Amino acid sequence: MADELVHYDVVGGTATITLDSPHNRNALSAQLRRELSESLVKAAVDDAVRVVVLTHTGPVFCAGMDLKEARGAGAGDQGVNEFPKILEQLWSSPKPVVARLAGPARAGGIGMVAACDIAVAVPEATFAFSEVRIGVVPAVISLTVLPRLNARAAHELFLTGDTFDARRAVEIGLLNSAVPAGELDGEVARFVKALAQGGPNALAATKALLSRPRPATPSDGFDDMLGLSAKFFASEEGQEGILAFAQKRKPNWVPQD
Fold first, then answer.
1. Residue 176 contacts residue 120 (beta carbons within 8 Å)
2. Strand partners, 128
3. 8 A C-beta contact, residue 13 and residue 196
4. What is the largest CA-CA distance in the chain?
């Protein structure tokens, strides 16, 4: 549809979700939020999809919430009330999600970047937790951002609202890498290919594992982790992977080149 703000395409096991609202810097308007959420549902339930790439058109990845829609609305009518669902969909997606940034992200846009498993940007991309500068709090996005950032950087950047570049975003844990624009698609493809080598069920379980609270000591968690490991060693997927290793071939879940 010509008037859609989010495009969804699947090629070779990769679902590409593209934010396409450049007139307002891909701000999280009601329509964009709805279409983005619908696209994430499609990717999650499609067995043909192995990896999701979240990207954008225009010079800006995402400017955060649509402030025009927020103006004059009461607390119960603010669009931010719908945003946790999107962050949760990204964070808990059974398919790994790669964020591709060819431009800046602000506020809620950074929350989405942090909710993705892998994030790659061009060096020119900039970031800012600009909420405090307009008198609001980066509350919702803190739940995906703070697990990524080191504590000193989080305090500085949340409280000052200062702009920082992609190099620093890598240093503090927000991005995995920053590469020149001409190498951006190649870097994304490298991560997508690596992620697609993993078993679909194993990837989903590993994502869940990474989000679990850590036990106080290793011994407190060994029983649960042993059960999880044994289950997957004995699973159909695990047995296929073991057999493929022995036969020096790719497992049956790896997309064909």
1. yes
2. 106
3. yes
4. 64
142's tokens: 């803190």
3-class secondary structure for 115-130? HCCEEEECCCCEEECH
Contact 144, 117 (CB under 8 A): no
pLDDT digits (tens, 9 = 90+) for 101-137: 999 999 999 999 999 999 999 999 999 999 999 999 9
Measured over the CA atoms of residue 130, residue 125, residue 55 and residue 88, the dihedral's sign is negative
pLDDT, one tens digit per residue, over 61-113 is 999 987 676 565 565 655 567 899 999 999 999 999 999 999 999 999 999 99
Contact 86, 108 (CB under 8 A): no
> Of 170, 171, 204, 172, nearest to 187 (Cα)?
170
CB 44 within 8 A of CB 93: yes
Tell me which of 131, 156, 171, 236 is the catalytic residue.
131
Chain mean position to CA 35:
16
Q: Please tell me the pTM assigned to this model.
A: 0.94
Is residue 240 annotated as a catalytic residue, yes or no? Answer: no
Sheet holding 105-106, edge to edge: 105-106, 126-128, 164-165
| Contact yes or no for 115/107 (Cβ under 8 A) | no
Whole-angstrom CA distances from 96 to 1, 35, 119, 206, 247 are: 27, 19, 11, 10, 27
Q: How many residues are there in the chain?
A: 257
Exposed/middle/buried for residue 152 (C-beta within 10 Å: 0-12, 13-18, 19+)? exposed
pLDDT digits (tens, 9 = 90+) for 126-175: 999 999 999 999 999 999 999 999 999 999 999 999 999 999 999 999 99
